[in-house]
Amino acid sequence: MSTFYGSRGGQPSFPSQANAFSSKPNKSNLPNNNIRLNISNTGINANRPRTIKSYKSIFEKVFYNRMKFYHRLSAVLALIITILLYIPSKSNAIFIPVKFILLWTGYTFFQQARISSLTIESSKASNLIQKIVSLFCSKKSYILGGTILLNNLLVSLILYAQSDSSLNYYIETPTKTIKPFVNDNFAFFVFFTIASSIIYSLNYIMSEKFLLQIPMGTYRQEPISYLKKLPHLKLLVLTTLKSIFAFFVIPLTYHVFFRDIFFQTFLKPLVLFNDLNNQLPRSDFSFKLLFKLSFYFWIESLSYDLLNEFFKAYALVGCLVVKTPISHFSDTPFQTLLSGIKDYENSIVRLTAYQELVYLSTSTDFKDRQVFYRADNWNLILAEFFFVQTNAARSARADLPKLKSTDNLKKERLEGIKKQASIFGNQSKDKKSFDFDFDFEINEEEKKADVDVTVVKNDSDAIYTKPEPKAEQISEFEIQYNTAVTSLYTFMDGLKNRIQRYVKNYLNIQSHSLGDTTEANSITYQLDVLYADFSSFTRHLFFGDITEQSNKRIPNKEIVGFSIIALTEMLIHAKVEDKYNTVTGTLTESLTLLTKVYKGTSEFLNNPPAGLSGKRECSIMVINELTISYFFKLVIYYNNILNDLLLPPEVFKLAKWCTDMALEQQREQKFTTNILQ
């Protein structure tokens, strides 16, 4: 790979005046954030050997610097929890520092567990069964669950140390000839600690609270603003519900199912080591102890939720250190940024690199984009865009039911673009609102003949690139599995209908369908609701919902979205800034690529997998709306030269529709203005 510091193929270098705006960073430490570094720092001592720093190495330094703020907030939280634990007890205040250190140590372990289980991609499970199996087979689930159990044990150790004799692990007997029995309150105390850890861990893992999702289109997220915007009332309500659930379920489970088993297994080492009585102690249930433990579980759950939000606040700050992009802390910014974009092993590093690419493509300083107007550099970036977006389009349309002859995109209505809430983060100013019928057809011959080939122009040459074989997302096993599940679902649906007919005949119901009756208090209506819920649960169990299916196909929608935004913004700014026609020369290929993404995502939304509805918002819908929005923006911006381009038929139809819609909106605005005048 050739570097971007010299000329290539006789092409002149960028003007040296740009170098006057650059500043060389300190090699030992991160430079002063007030110094603005320029990505076009290419002309001074070009022959001097330079060390190319990887994006990962710089990102790790920045990341751990940000985590210092997590430690400070966790220390404050540990101090508050220590005081809450101390106030109800009559323990000696001299042990408060020890309790504080224990809690803070546990919170540090929680932070390390979060770092070791960093995840930005959604679960690739297509249904509820696969999701449960994949989560329980994942190493990160056991790391997080073990850390939560460790923290609960530390809190329980503090509670036990400051408790009275009611929590002693044994009960004195009247005579010394009878060995002391295990205290049932102590046994329940230990069981509650373990059970509450399991309850919170399952809730934490199944709801994927460990998932990090950067808002699409944003460059930097201020941690304090993020924490202020948290739904604090929702956190309190959910924590209270978990505590209420534990209050009722744990004692019932202990006394009905696990009391004997727990004594014979978990407490057996304690009995043998302390020479206690082997007999099961009498039940000594205490509501006071239950209320006390439930209250402390509420405190622990709330503290874990807050710690999780503290971690997210500083892990998702973004690609800017104050106002300086991360790659600018390197002598070779472009190579450093490219190493981050190609870092497939570290998803958080790769996502941050794409986030920085969006920042540079939309920067108000044109010098930040000069390096991308080199043909060799732009080809490298465009190849990554092609790889990401083509894989997304292929995955979205893979393994879909066959289209009927009357089912095409001509009847599509993109209602999602009319949404008031922005999905583009800082790019909300570019959001459009449209309501239209889209004349865009697909036939089976075109679909079979469609080959994902993009032409990347380099001067007068043409380089045809195809995605790597690993782009195939749907394996043969998954296809067979989906076929088997479809057959099973058909059988279950038929069984449900037979049961429904049997119940209707048994109750002597004369209506043709249970759904025909709308009286909410009737037995028929209640049965209809019951069957609908059963059908919905069965469908979710085996097929999943539209969200799970779309997350499986495009688990990294943020990276796909950032690549679409960066590609479009680079083309828009290149119209004025690109003196060598490097980026603007790939307009046809870029429009074709965006059309491919829009086509693939539209096929999924119009023809989703069996038993699912494409109306709900999902990752594929977000990408679909983002693509058409930025395609529209690009077409309008380059409208004066579109007729000079050799566009494929599908791209031409979509571009023509965008132009017609823009003209129609102009006419409506003029008409409204004339009426008001």
From TrEMBL:
Residue spans crossing the bilayer: 69-87, 93-110, 141-161, 186-206, 235-257
Localization: Nucleus membrane; Nucleus, Nuclear pore complex
GO molecular function annotations of the record: spindle pole body-nuclear membrane anchor activity
Chief location bin: nucleus
Biased composition (Low complexity): 22-33
Top-level taxon in the UniProt lineage: Eukaryota
Start and end residues of each stretch annotated as Disordered: 1-33
Cellular component aspect of the GO annotation: nuclear membrane; nuclear pore transmembrane ring; spindle pole body
Membrane topology: Multi-pass membrane protein
Signal peptide (UniProt feature, chain positions): none
UniProtKB keywords: Membrane, mRNA transport, Nuclear pore complex, Nucleus, Protein transport, Translocation, Transmembrane, Transmembrane helix, Transport
Any single biological process term in GO: spindle pole body localization
Pfam families, A to Z: Ndc1_Nup (PF09531)
Family: Belongs to the NDC1 family.
PANTHER family: NUCLEOPORIN NDC1
Protein name listed in UniProt: Nucleoporin NDC1
Organism of origin: Pichia membranifaciens NRRL Y-2026
